[in-house]
């Protein structure tokens, strides 16, 4: 055996013995590895032991109500001498340690579980000595503490910790939380994989508000969620789902519902709620039959590969329809051509005929969007089917009725069969707001395919979104517990009165603000796959379910509200005679003011409002200050950029993404006017506030809303009793995530402005 490793083994045995005898010195020279955040350096800063975390892999296996979590860490010592380290892992209360392994995993090492109060006392001692507040972010959690282990020089070692917990069923819902830091930067990249085996029926309303996950299902019914990002969202990993409620041989015919609530940070008498209404198609069940009409642009600009790709994608869509579903194809330039007078049933003969008809389509002429849309909407509809229109164009309307207002009105008032219009803009020369408006008015969604993107693949993705509709015509009202309508209990509900169609694995979402703490009901109806009316009722009891730990609810509501205001602002541009008329409209100022307020309060960047803000600043749309002359020239381009081109597409994409946000976007990733996805490290979202980095100081939104004149600021330095007092008050109000921000943080705490120095000078 290698002599070095023999010495390490001997040393490790001594270290383990010391651990078992509780001969510890957390204030000494060893490194403390906090997987959720970073390596906490030794107290003696002159000791150079550069131990780092290289990566963290999390695997969560859920079987029924039991969850087994395995964390694997790669830890490296870049120094020239042996380093000491120990693992300190914050975990939820009630977990059971199953094992801790080091190196090749053949020999298990010791790891002990500390309850939350004992863990907090340890955190306080470490913070006081090491001047690093990172641990206090996890106050309230228990902790797993390992024995001391060696990290050989210029080498990497693998660590593994396994723990199990029994999840508590609340209102039919199970919640899993993996604690992680709120810091915008961490020492190591993470990957997460979840395998969820919850029975034959699978989980209901699966929800991951913290991170965007890829989902697929194994043949045995196990749902697998994966996340592999170089830079995943900060904050804890959260996963919720409904436990299967039906008994063997039974299945509920109505939708399943789950609800989350968070009290307002200002007092708790009001708050925010988020309700999810959905259902998955189970094995052997059928979904609502679809009636799909493809409306394809064949104007001259579609010549070549563009039209060829569209035709091939259209063939795949027709072939992908289920038996019994119906379809039609409409092509248009200055005129309109129909494959059939009305949608026909998909079978071998109709599929073959459709392929041959598409082969004969050629590109030439102008673009009569109004007449093409009218032809699609005037077709006879079939009872009990979900009528869908896929409307594709690569340009602006040039022939017939070309006004944006008239085409949008046709999609709404002229859509008597309530066909859902999914618009597809190809390239950058499209009226992006019009396509978005056509889709939203009808209950569909817009899609933009930029130059260089694979048109055939993107069209297939759009069609896959329409898989498995289970409920349509979903409507709701707000009632008292005894069933009386009580609309005043809810404000700023998004959407209002009507929910989107519900597809398998894609529940409809309702977000809003509740007024008062007494219970209320959200009662709704919908039509199922057999065209029967189904009812659902969701009880919202703020006193029982509202929790500051679910503060993601407030932020998701704010994002959806901002997106709705942004689209309203852009819709006003479609009926305005010019920029000056739009700017002089008092409603414009009101919308911009409210968008900016919400953006500031919650730390959510808005691109649309920047066109009308005085300083023109908002994230990717920030403009340099301009002279009056150049500003007038700039304003002259605003209307064009709001309606056409890559900038307009970016505005629509950003707004629609906010309106549909179901996963926190803590890096404020948005598309800029060049079509690039950009993130912002100078904003942070913690609890229910936004934080903005101004000259190295994180400023809380509550402070930014106050006048600077006469403001008295109390400064507290980490490691002092004054800092400890502030930290305790933050922990009591569930704002301990602020302790994760490096540097200085200025906050409003109990009416006092406090400057926290989170880093030791």
Tell me the CATH topology of the largest domain.
Immunoglobulin-like
Q: Using only CA atoms, what is the Rg?
A: 29 Å
Strand arrangement, largest sheet?
Answer: 7-6-11-4-3-14-17-16
Question: Any low-confidence stretches, pLDDT <50, length ≥5?
Answer: 1-26, 613-639
Task: Summarize the biggest pleated sheet.
Answer: 8 strands, mixed
Number of strands: 42
Second-tier CATH architecture of the largest domain: Sandwich
Shape: globular
Protein name: von Willebrand factor type A domain protein
InterPro entries: VIT, VWF_A, vWFA_dom_sf
Pfam family, one: VWA_3
Topology at a glance:
Layout: H1 3-20, E1 31-34, E2 38-40, E3 51-63, E4 66-77, E5 83-91, E6 96-102, E7 108-109, E8 111-114, H2 116-130, E9 142-146, E10 149-151, E11 155-166, E12 169-170, E13 173-178, E14 190-197, E15 204-207, E16 214-217, E17 223-228, E18 237-242, E19 256-263, E20 270-278, E21 290-297, H3 305-320, E22 326-332, E23 336-338, E24 344-345, H4 348-359, H5 369-377, E25 386-393, H6 404-412, E26 420-426, H7 432-442, E27 446-449, H8 455-464, E28 469-479, E29 490-494, E30 498-499, E31 502-503, E32 508-515, E33 520-527, E34 533-540, H9 542-545, H10 552-574, H11 579-584, H12 586-602, H13 628-643, H14 645-659, E35 670-671, E36 677-678, E37 683-686, E38 689-694, E39 697-700, H15 701-704, E40 713-717, H16 721-732, E41 744-749, E42 752-757
Parallel strand pairs: 1-5, 3-14, 21-22, 21-25, 25-26, 26-27, 39-41, 40-42
Antiparallel strand pairs: 1-2, 3-4, 4-11, 5-9, 5-10, 6-7, 6-11, 8-9, 12-13, 13-18, 14-17, 15-18, 16-17, 19-20, 20-32, 22-23, 22-24, 28-30, 28-31, 28-33, 29-32, 33-34, 35-36, 37-38, 38-39, 41-42
Helix pairs in contact: 3-4, 3-8, 5-6, 6-7, 10-12, 10-14, 13-14
């Amino acid at each position: 055996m290698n002599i070095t490793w023999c010495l390490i083994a001997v040393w490790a045995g001594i270290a383990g013995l010391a651990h078992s005898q509780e001969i510890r010195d957390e204030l000494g020279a060893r490194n403390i590895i906090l997987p959720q955040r970073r390596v906490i350096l030794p107290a003696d800063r002159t000791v150079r032991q550069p131990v780092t975390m290289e990566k963290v892999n999390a695997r969560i296996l859920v079987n029924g109500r039991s969850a087994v979590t395995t964390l694997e860490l790669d830890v490296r010592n870049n120094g020239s001498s042996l380093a000491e380290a120990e693992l300190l892992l914050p975990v939820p209360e009630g977990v059971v340690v199953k094992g801790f392994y080091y190196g090749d995993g053949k020999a298990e090492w010791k790891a002990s579980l500390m309850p939350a109060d004992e863990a907090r006392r340890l955190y306080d001692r470490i913070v006081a000595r090491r001047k690093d507040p990172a641990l206090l972010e996890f106050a309230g959690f228990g902790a797993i503490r390992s024995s001391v282990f060696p990290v050989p020089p210029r080498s990497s070692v693998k660590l593994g910790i396994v723990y199990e917990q029994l999840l508590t069923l609340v209102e039919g819902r199970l919640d899993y939380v993996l604690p992680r830091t709120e810091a915008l930067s961490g020492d190591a990249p993470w990957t997460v994989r979840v395998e969820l085996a919850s029975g034959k029926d699978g989980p209901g309303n699966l929800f991951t508000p913290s991170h965007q996950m890829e989902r697929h299902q194994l043949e045995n019914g196990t749902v697998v969620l994966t996340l592999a990002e170089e830079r995943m969202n900060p904050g804890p990993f959260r996963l919720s789902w409904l436990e299967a409620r039906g008994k063997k041989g039974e299945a509920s015919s109505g939708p399943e519902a789950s609800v989350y609530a968070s009290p307002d940070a200002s007092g708790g008498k009001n708050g925010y709620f988020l309700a999810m209404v959905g259902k998955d198609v189970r094995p052997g069940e059928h979904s609502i039959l679809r009636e799909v009409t493809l409306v394809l642009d064949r104007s001259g600009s579609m010549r070549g590969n563009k039209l060829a790709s569209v035709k091939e994608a259209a063939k795949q869509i027709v072939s992908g329809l289920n038996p019994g579903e119906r379809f039609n194809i409409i092509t248009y330039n200055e005129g309109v051509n129909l494959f059939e007078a009305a949608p026909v049933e998909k079978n071998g003969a109709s599929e073959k005929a459709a392929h041959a008809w598409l082969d004969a389509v050629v590109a030439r002429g102008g673009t009569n969007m109004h007449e093409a849309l009218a032809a699609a909407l005037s077709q006879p509809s079939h009872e009990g089917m979900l009528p869908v229109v896929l409307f594709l164009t690569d340009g602006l309307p040039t022939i017939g009725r070309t006004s944006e207002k008239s085409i949008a009105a046709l999609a709404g008032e002229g859509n008597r069969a309530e066909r859902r219009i999914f618009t597809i803009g190809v390239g950058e020369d499209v009226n992006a707001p019009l396509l978005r408006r056509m889709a939203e008015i009808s209950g569909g969604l817009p899609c933009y395919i930029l130059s260089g993107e694979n048109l055939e693949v993107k069209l297939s993705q759009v069609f896959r979104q329409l898989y498995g509709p289970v409920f349509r015509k979903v409507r709701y009202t707000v009632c008292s517990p005894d069933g009386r309508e009580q609309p005043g209990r809810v404000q700023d509900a998004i959407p209002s009165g009507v929910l989107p169609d519900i597809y398998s694995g894609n529940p409809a979402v309702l977000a809003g603000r509740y007024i008062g703490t007494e219970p209320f009901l959200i009662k709704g109806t919908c039509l199922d796959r057999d065209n029967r009316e189904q009812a659902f009722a969701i009880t919202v009891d703020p006193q029982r379910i509202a929790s500051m730990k679910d503060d993601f609810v407030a932020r998701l509501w704010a994002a959806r509200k901002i997106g709705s205001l942004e689209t309203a602002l852009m819709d006003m541009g479609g009926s305005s005679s010019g920029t000056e008329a739009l700017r002089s409209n008092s409603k414009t100022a009101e919308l911009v003011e409210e968008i900016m307020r919400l953006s500031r309060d919650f730390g959510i960047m808005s691109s649309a409002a920047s066109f009308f803000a005085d300083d023109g600043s908002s994230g990717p749309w920030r403009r340099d200050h301009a002279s009056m002359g150049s500003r007038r020239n700039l304003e002259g381009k605003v209307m064009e950029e709001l309606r056409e081109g890559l900038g307009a597409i970016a505005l629509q994409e950003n707004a629609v993404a906010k309106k549909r946000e179901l996963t926190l976007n803590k890096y404020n990733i948005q598309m800029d006017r060049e079509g690039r996805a950009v993130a912002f490290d100078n904003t942070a979202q913690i609890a229910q506030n936004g934080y903005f980095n101004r000259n190295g100081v994180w400023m809380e939104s509550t402070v930014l809303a106050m006048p600077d004149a006469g403001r008295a600021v109390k400064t507290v330095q980490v490691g002092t009793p004054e800092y400890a007092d502030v930290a305790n008050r933050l922990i009591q109000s569930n704002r301990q995530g602020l302790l994760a921000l490096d540097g200085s943080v200025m906050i409003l705490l109990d009416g006092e402005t406090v400057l926290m120095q989170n880093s030791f000078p």
